[in-house]
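Researcher: Here's a chain I'd like modeled. Treat it as a single chain, no partners, no ligands.
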Amino acid sequence: MGATSEHYDDEEELLARVAQLMAEEKVIGWFHGKMEFGPRALGNRSIIGDARSEAMQSVMNLKIKFRESFRPFAPSVLKERVSDYFEMAAGVESPYMLLVTGVQEQRRVANGNTGGHGLELLKQKRSDVPAITHVDYSARVQTVDATRNPAYHQMLRHFEARTGCPVIINTSFNVRGEPIVCTPEDAYRCFMRTEMDYLVLGSFLLDKKAQPRFEEKGDWRQDYQLD
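Model: Modeled as a single isolated chain. Structure tokens:
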């Protein structure tokens, strides 16, 4: 990878660094381990960010996914903390991000849904994890445990230790209309085409600012039909 990346022999150091960057509201392309098989990115081919950020939903939609700013994102949450944030009983699992439930009442903001129309209504803060809270206070939850994905789980633990919050945004590693990235080349291309801040490729961490100029012929957005 050369001077354009940092290599971490100690995975714990990498996971702690990623947690720190997310706490600073950086958007991370996360390419780690084997690719998922199914309809969701579950922490191997994901774009991740701070669910506490009021700006993150718009930033990720407009600058990374290239879609409408109001489109919702789903949360990854430590399995052992799910009932603290969502209306799910302790021990209930949603490892494949297929269950929709409400954000816990105590997490909701009192002035949410207080009126307005259209985008004004959509932009209102609804909870202390606003980037993953939908208009109706719901979220499509992924619970993360150490058995299925130990690295992703440990990174979430580092994020919780730093911020007090065990919840992050997890969206698929692709742009609107494009398939989820499969190879390191796919991941780097998507990273450079968007405004992600950092890219994790296994044990390497790439800073967008340290990358050489990325040039392509033609408009890559014409390669895929938008949804």
